[in-house]
Design brief:
The protein is of the alpha+beta class. It folds into three domains: about 10-100, 2-Layer Sandwich (Uridine Diphospho-n-acetylenolpyruvylglucosamine Reductase, domain 2); about 105-225, 2-Layer Sandwich (Uridine Diphospho-n-acetylenolpyruvylglucosamine Reductase, domain 3), CATH 3.30.465; about 230-335, Alpha-Beta Plaits (2-Layer Sandwich), CATH 3.30.70.2190. Helix content is about 35%, strand content about 20%. It is built from twelve helices and 15 strands. It has helices spanning about 10-20, 30-35, 60-70, 125-130, 150-155, 160-165, 200-205, 240-250, 265-275, 295-305, 320-330, 330-355; strands spanning about 25, 50-55, 75-80, 95-100, 105-110, 115, 135, 170-180, 185-190, 215-220, 220-225, 230-235, 260-265, 285-295, 310-315. The strands form four sheets. A five-stranded antiparallel beta sheet has the order 5-6-10-8-9. Strands 1-2-4-3 form a four-stranded mixed beta sheet, with helices on both faces. Strands 13-14-12-15 form a four-stranded antiparallel beta sheet, sandwiched between helices. Strand 5 (about 105-110) and strand 6 (about 115) form a beta hairpin. It starts with 8 loop residues before the first helix and ends in an 8-residue tail after the last helix.
């Protein structure tokens, strides 16, 4: 089908370049393919963008949106592009607007227990900077070392500590965003209690760029808990028993920071990916974490695990061993994807050997 355009690509790109004063506009095929098709995702290629724009200022963002309005172009917001659900993949003829270079921590205020950041700040970098001030940033998605706060806000990312500290939306107090018409608005604030008006801040959280381009985010920080942090694993014959144990622990008053359940197939995939041997223990695995733990709270957890047939319970207060356990959970999706890719390759080879057409579903 022939699509008529009133403007040529040259006219569009010339205007776009004139509107982006601080950032860069990339149109070479290698960059467009790399940024349009997310290699981290399991989905297919959705469309080649017209241009990839790395903005470095609010004025740049306004310039990209001005271009989009003038030429009726779709805009795809993007930061570090670590999504596994192709949420920031390109569309044919679109402008990909990347805020990954807007990556400054603007403020960490210990008295107010807040941080103000640009959208390109990496989650783990903010957490480390806060810890130097005796605070920490609670949301910890599996992509914590590589995903941006802007992307976390746009997708309302969860994380391993959600059971205690909530998802991203529970930790965002305010933000600034540029609307489609170029206006920058300020929503929310820097206080925990905001009891008047519409909660437009939370409307933006999870909106994936459909309402505007986030330019600044105010998040709450937490004081580092006193006491000892412990982590552990327990194994169950099935996910049903594990679920009962998790429910009992949550209702016990212990307030765990992490309760991560991995089914048998996932543990097998992790063993192959990490060269570990957890799958030999049972059909399901629980990773748990307690901050500010006491002998009493740990005794409660162990009793409940035993009550619901938890086996081979192992607990550690060693920092490196805890880091290794957290990394095991972070590697869950890469391990599962690696297993799927191996299965698809095996199916393809098998079908070729049988003389049938190859078809990867």
């Amino acid at each position: 089908m022939t699509v008529f355009s009133a403007y040529s690509d040259e006219e569009i790109l010339e205007y776009l370049t004139s509107q982006v004063k601080d950032g860069t506009v990339e149109t070479d095929m290698a960059t467009l393919k790399k940024q349009s098709f997310n290699s981290n995702a399991s989905g297919g290629e959705s469309g080649l963008a017209r241009a990839f724009v790395e903005v470095e200022s609010v004025a740049d963002i306004q310039g990209v949106l001005r271009t989009a309005r003038k030429f009726h172009l779709p805009v795809i917001p993007q930061t570090t592009a670590t999504s596994t659900v192709v949420g920031s993949d390109g569309q044919p003829g679109a402008l990909i607007l990347s805020t990954r270079q807007m990556n400054r921590i603007l403020e960490i205020d210990k008295e107010d227990s807040v941080a103000v950041v640009q959208p390109g700040v990496i989650n783990g970098d903010l957490d480390q900077a806060a810890r130097k001030r005796g605070l920490f940033y609670a949301p910890d998605p599996g992509s914590k070392p590589i995903s941006s706060i802007g992307g976390n806000v746009s997708t309302n990312a969860g994380g391993m500590s959600t059971v205690r500290y909530g998802a991203t939306k529970d930790n965002v107090l305010g933000l600034k965003a540029v609307l489609a018409d170029g206006r920058e608005i300020k929503l929310g604030g820097r206080t925990l209690k905001q009891a008047f008006g519409y909660d437009l801040t939370q409307l933006f959280v999870g909106s994936e760029g459909t309402l505007g381009i986030i330019t600044e985010i105010t998040v709450k920080l937490m004081p580092i808990p006193l006491g000892q942090t412990v982590m552990g694993v327990a194994f169950f014959s099935n996910m049903g028993s594990l679920a009962k144990a998790v429910t009992a622990i949550r209702m016990s008053g212990v307030y765990p920071t992490m309760l991560e359940a991995l089914d048998g197939n996932t543990v097998v995939a992790l063993d192959k990916f990490e060269h570990t041997h957890y799958a030999s223990n049972s059909g399901a695995m629980l990773i748990f974490k307690l901050e500010g733990s006491s002998p009493e709270s740990m005794a409660v957890v162990k009793d409940l695990l035993a009550k619901y047939d938890g086996q081979n319970v192992q607990v550690t207060d060693d920092e490196q061993e805890q880091t290794d356990l957290e990394q095991l959970r972070r590697d869950m999706l890469p391990a599962v994807f690696a297993g799927q890719n191996h299965l698809m390759r095996s199916q393809t080879i098998s079908r070729f050997n049988l003389g049938k057409p190859a078809c990867i579903i």
